[in-house]
Amino acid sequence: MTLKQTILIVALLLIILLPVAAFAQDKADVKDGGLICKKAESITQCIPRLYDFAMGISGLVFVGVLVAAGYLMMTAGGNGEQLSTAKEMFNGAGAGIIILTTAYILLRFLNPDLVELKPIEQLAPSQPTNTTTSVDERGPVISITSPADNAIVSGSVELVISLEDSDGVKKYELLSIPGELRVLGNLTDNPTSLTYRYTWELDGVPLGRYTIGVTAEDNKGNLGQGEVHLTVSVPSR
């Protein structure tokens, strides 16, 4: 193998083995870091520095080869074999410099992403954003504040009902079981909050226990329900 071939092989090996060297140093158990790369750095941060380091070392090697070749030529004294060796050294060093310089230009300037690698977490595909819009399926909140549940009433009773819904209350219905009472109400202004009062006259209403149910609907068609229990009794004398 000639000297020129040896220099070319060394140059190619430097280019090929740089990523391997970076990976090995990244995995090394070094307390404060390596000569080129620190332990805290990832392999993607270390590779560009290794390329720069290799270029510097290669430049020193080729300068040394050129100096040695020049020395051989100056001291050849007509020795054809020594002159031939010096020429091979010149040619090999020149070819090696061209290869490394071309690789450096391609990697650093034409496509810097080849040496300025991104961390793996930056290459991972981003998670799709959940754009699902929540649908309000809650009906109006109904509170029967009067009378109290299980109250005993006679003569007449005032029903006080509070309705609340952020989408606006569209309509409501009062219904007694047994069916002695039914009141329907349509609200054109669709209020978000409403207090409704209704006086139920109990004259002629059979005595007994009743359940007053309240149903309300908002503008989205959601329903809300509430109820109160009453006992209609004979008025006290």
Structure description:
The chain is α+β, with helices and mostly antiparallel strands. It has two domains: 121 residues, no CATH class; 92 residues, Immunoglobulin-like (Sandwich), CATH 2.60.40.650. 39% of the residues lie in helices and 26% in strands. It has four helices and eight strands, in the order ααααββββββββ. The strands form two sheets. Strands 2-8-7-4-5 form a five-stranded mixed sheet, with no helix packed on it. Strands 1-3-6 form a three-stranded antiparallel sheet, with no helix packed on it. The longest helix has 32 residues. The radius of gyration is 46 Å and the shape is rod-shaped. The chain starts with a helix and ends in a 5-residue tail after the last strand. The relative contact order is 0.11.
Secondary-structure blueprint:
Elements (H helix, E strand, L loop, with lengths): L2 H25 L15 H32 L5 H31 L9 H4 L17 E6 L4 E3 L2 E9 L4 E9 L4 E5 L6 E9 L6 E11 L4 E10 L5
Parallel strand pairs: 2-8
Antiparallel strand pairs: 1-3, 3-6, 4-5, 4-7, 7-8
Summarize the structure.
With 237 residues, the protein is α+β, with helices and mostly antiparallel strands. The protein contains four helices and eight strands.
